[in-house]
Specification:
443 residues; mainly alpha
Length: 443
């Protein structure tokens, strides 16, 4: 009994420490954003309580929170959120607010999540209170992650005037410049391919919520969360990824070697207007200046990392969801290259990044063992080696693609193989059911 109490005490202390660190991180981002004349994640979240929020996963957060509720409570929560949004929409329309893409629904979802937190503190006790607070925290974390990510991207654009696209573009010769190839294919098959891929690329959070909701479908019945689920991996990827952006700022081929995503503003900053129709010549790379607006969010490709996470976590789902996870991964990889948002080497780094984080989180849950430590160390080493090679060996990689191309694929495959082999060992062994021995008949 004493050990159980001590364990709960330390677990509570760990949650408090994590909350303090998260709050400090948000305050730091708020201060940094204010220095650049923009509101930070805290300000944006507070404004969303009254003003029309910017597009974001507010209803996705509400959906995740509702995994702890009964079906009756879910209907009440969803109805309240939709009703609040409907009233606010009429008020904004009556006040003459301009209804543009900058205005979005979601204030009602945010109010319902905060109201649920109040109910948990004032009307629930014991495990029911903890479960409801965990649900609210999960939903708000998804929302806060989006706001934090937007601030991170702003900081990368403002604080990193020099970008390393020329280095990454040279390294991409080792893979045959796949962004140029896929970009031409997408343009040749427009508008069908463009609309489909843009839908997949822009709704990645929706796919994540669907898979996460399936994984958490039994929380309301079992009254506890599973030890590991997709949302955790998503949040850690989103938290650590922008830190790599600061170390390795890259804007992407459509900006560095093309007209920019809008088709107008990127040419004046581009090293050349080559993407996707003209092959990139081999030359000595150098850091180049870029604008203070475009995020430096290419290295690694977090869209690839998130799509890999969705693929992994959908493997135990029904066939339809497994098919959707596979489709989302393939379509996301195609979109990142075909729209010129990423180089091929970004995708390789994104795959290694995702698998390393997933392995670390699973090892943390089940207890660190030798296999888990080796897998995480191997993934981290490969990821660091990739970044170093992109920065300091790009010309050699471009001149010897027959060597470095297969080598890049090989090191990525080694991480994939290590992850699959190690996680299979972690799965509980299922042996044949032992048949009861026949009992002798009584004489």
């Amino acid at each position: 009994m004493t050990s159980l109490i001590v364990g709960r005490h330390w677990r509570a202390m760990l949650w408090v420490a994590a909350g303090v660190v998260a709050l400090g991180f948000l305050i730091t981002l708020e201060i940094a954003a204010r220095r650049y004349g923009e509101p930070g994640p805290i300000t944006n979240q507070v404004q969303a309580l009254i003003l029309a929020p910017k597009p974001g996963p507010l209803y996705g957060g509400l959906g995740l929170m509702m995994v702890v509720l009964t079906w009756r409570q879910r209907l009440i929560a969803a109805g309240a959120a939709i009703g609040i949004d409907a009233v606010l929409l009429l008020v904004r329309w009556a006040a003459g607010a301009e209804m543009t893409d900058g205005y979005s629904l979601g204030t009602g979802a945010l109010w319902v999540m905060l109201g649920s937190a109040v109910i948990a503190v004032t009307r629930r006790t014991g495990r029911e209170r903890v479960l409801l607070l965990k649900g609210v925290g999960l939903g708000l974390l998804l929302v806060a992650a989006r706001k934090t990510g937007d601030t991170w991207l702003l900081i990368t654009a403002k604080s990193r005037p020099m970008v390393l696209d020329q280095y990454v573009a040279m390294a991409d010769h080792a893979l045959g410049n796949p962004s140029w190839l896929v970009g031409r294919i997408v343009k040749a098959t427009d508008p069908f391919s463009g609309h489909l891929l843009q839908l997949v690329y822009g709704q990645l959070a929706v796919a994540a919520v669907v898979v996460a909701f399936y994984q958490l479908r039994d929380v309301a019945v079992e009254r506890r969360f599973p030890r590991h689920h997709l949302v955790r991996t998503f949040l850690v990827i989103g938290l650590l990824g922008p830190g790599i952006y600061m170390l390795f700022p890259v804007v992407g081929p459509v900006f560095a070697y093309g007209p920019g995503a809008s088709g107008t503003g990127g040419v004046q900053w581009a090293a050349a207007n080559l993407w996707p129709h003209t092959s990139l010549p081999i030359s000595t790379p150098a850091p180049m200046t870029y604008d203070g607006i475009t995020p430096r969010n290419c290295m690694p490709s977090l869209h690839t990392a998130w799509a890999v996470a969705i693929f992994i976590h959908s493997r135990r789902a029904p066939r339809l969801l497994r098919f959707a996870g596979t489709f989302w991964l393939i379509a996301t990889l195609t979109a990142t290259l075909g729209f010129g948002y990423h180089y091929g080497v970004d995708l390789i780094a994104g795959v290694v990044f995702a698998l390393t984080i997933e392995a670390a989180l699973r090892s943390l849950d089940r207890g660190w063992d030798r296999a888990g430590i080796q897998l995480v160390v191997h993934g981290a080493t490969v990821f660091a080696a990739l970044l170093v090679s992109y920065r300091y060996l790009p010309v050699e990689m471009a001149r010897h693609p027959e060597v470095f191309g297969p080598l890049l694929i090989l090191v990525m495959t080694s991480v994939i193989y290590g992850y699959v082999r190690t996680t299979k060992r972690w799965e509980p062994a299922v042996g044949p059911t032992r048949q009861p021995e026949p009992q002798p008949e009584p004489v």
